[in-house]
Amino acid sequence: MGHVFISYSNADAPAALSTCAALEGASIACWIAPRDIAAGQDWAAEIIDGINGADLFLLVFSEHTNGSPQVRREVERAVHKEVAVMPVRVQNVLPSKSLEYFVSAQHWFDAYQGEFSAHLPALVQRVRLAQERHSARVSSSSVSKPESGRTIESALGAQARALDPSALGVIERNLALSIGPIASVLVRNAASRATSLETLIALLAAEIDSPQDRSRFVEACRRRA
Description:
Elements: E1 3-7, H1 13-25, E2 30-32, H2 43-52, E3 54-61, H3 63-66, H4 69-80, E4 85-89, H5 97-103, E5 109-110, H6 120-140, H7 152-155, H8 165-179, H9 183-191, H10 197-205, H11 211-224
Parallel strand pairs: 1-2, 1-3, 3-4, 4-5
Helix pairs in contact: 1-6, 4-5, 8-9, 8-11, 10-11
């Protein structure tokens, strides 16, 4: 199994750390910042790697979550990467409009009545069940897929050639308009695999969920890059 990525606002750190301790005490691996960000490493890149390696995204949810742009970006990345999201409500509040799109359809785990610690045993069981379901889905889909099912990234086999830094800057700025500061990390990663600017634009367009924003991104990059 992969790990559980724990996302939280700094104001909810006690609940997040208690959750992490309870899960790891039950032999469930967790990824939590800042503990799992190596010294001197790029924070955004480490966050993305943590989400990519997760089989469950546990969101500690409160009124502070609604006001955290960083948490919203983490949730967006998890949903985009099709990582299951489990919101754990530590306060009886509803998501803001910017979060509702991503978490409203998910199954909440309510842990706001009484002491938070009293909810941890049930939460551990819920997480374990979610991971088991994830493993079952992965096992059932591990049969070799046809060529048409390959992603754009897997179809790229050639070593990337040097790309114009000024064009990369234009692409990064346009991508940031849709997904925020993590654009710099995604551009850097994609540039190491892309064989041309068109390929790079296609790779990065796939990171944008909205069809309208995706189309605007592609048009802007082709016009200015």
